[in-house]
Amino acid sequence: MVRRPRSRTGVTELDQAIEALVEQAGLDDNQDLYLEMLTSVLRMGRERTDRGDVKIINSALKELRNAFTVFAPYADVPKCAVFGSARTAEDTEAYRMAREVGRHLADAGWMVMTGGGPGIMTAVVEGAGPEASFGVSIVLPFEPGGSQHAALFDGKNINFRYFFSRKLTLTKESSGYVVFPGGFGTLDETMELLTLMQTGKAPPSPVVLFEPPGDAYWRSWRHYVEVELLDAGLISPVDLDMVYITSDPGDAVAYVRNFYRVFHSIRHVGNRLYIRLNIDISDEAIATLNAEFGDLLTSGSIERAEAAAVEVADGDVPDLPRLRLRFNNAAHGRLHLMVQRLGELV
């Protein structure tokens, strides 16, 4: 399928020069997107974009390209991001539990992703081992990290200047999340993750809020959310079902793994949502989904489907079984529940 770029400079000579450059570079795959990126760069220059703004684009592009290159060899290995405080001491129960979570994940064939710093982040890597760990670092003037901890990751450490590109990488590459108690940074990452899932900007994923034995950190957080947000109608009750609180490392990892027992991924195609499955489910299970989650539909029913034409063209796991539905885009919390229900129906 030949795709044409949607963005042009409007100057025939420049557009032809961009096309010639892409052809000369031998960029056969995704040629339309490379044309658009080069077009955007030239348009910024012709619009006399402020140098500070150009620096942001330049740094972010280089950081993301580097991150994609580092992660590419491990694309088929599931990864779990683990958040938590850089200030957690080694002699605490939280540190010991984080090490156990890392070990359980590695034993289950998962890799771990951390912020690349000390505290909880180092504990997780100690448990998983350097060969199963990624560091997605941002160097702060008042926290140790970055190059100081690069040796922990067997060459799989990436340094970011901007939080937004770092967060994008963590979300893009992660299939699950385990969050330990932490400060503003941990809460920021957690709330942004839940916002992305609530609004459909991130796919349904397992989110474990890990509370070390004897600690009430996440139960206190949930109480605040229930009293100040839920009771005021600022969120829906189903939004709280996107998180799972536990104090057991084995239970935390089991929850992450079981989320994908049946579910593989989703993709929106036009006005339909395709749910790709690791294993097929019975007609009776589909009937149960329709009975319990009919509110997810704008019309029609949840049904079996073949891969959409665009999925086949993109090589987007076209051989996996699928469900298809006309999805109510205001119901992402319920979609998260349906994904969990899939695992219970097999």
| Poorly predicted runs of 5 or more residues | none
Strand order of the largest sheet: 4-3-2-1-5-6-7
Q: Structural class, from helix and strand content?
A: alpha/beta
Second-tier CATH architecture of the largest domain: 3-Layer(aba) Sandwich
Q: What is the average per-residue confidence, as pLDDT, rounded to a whole number?
A: 92
CATH fold-level name of the largest domain:
Rossmann fold
The structural domain count equals 3
Instruction: Summarize the amount of helix as a percent range.
Output: 40-55%
Largest sheet: 7 strands, parallel
Based on CA atoms alone, the radius of gyration comes out at 22 Å
CATH domain class name of the largest domain: Alpha Beta
- Distance between the first and last residues' Cα: 37 Å
Number of strands: 11
Name the overall outline.
Answer: globular
Which band does the percent of strand residues land in?
Answer: 15-25%
SSE sequence, one letter per element: HHHEHEHEEHEHEHEHEEHEHEH
Number of helices: 12
Tags for this entry?
single chain, 346 residues, alpha/beta, Rossmann fold, 3 domains, 7-stranded parallel β-sheet, 4-stranded antiparallel β-sheet, 12 helices
Structure description:
The protein has 346 residues and is of the alpha/beta class. The protein has 12 helices and 11 strands. The model has no long low-confidence stretch (mean pLDDT 92).
Q: What is the topology?
A:
Elements: H1 12-24, H2 31-46, H3 51-71, E1 79-83, H4 93-107, E2 111-114, H5 120-128, E3 133-138, E4 157-160, H6 163-173, E5 176-179, H7 184-198, E6 207-210, H8 217-230, E7 244-246, H9 249-259, E8 263-269, E9 272-277, H10 283-292, E10 297-305, H11 309-314, E11 322-327, H12 332-344
Parallel strand pairs: 1-2, 1-5, 2-3, 3-4, 5-6, 6-7
Antiparallel strand pairs: 8-9, 9-11, 10-11
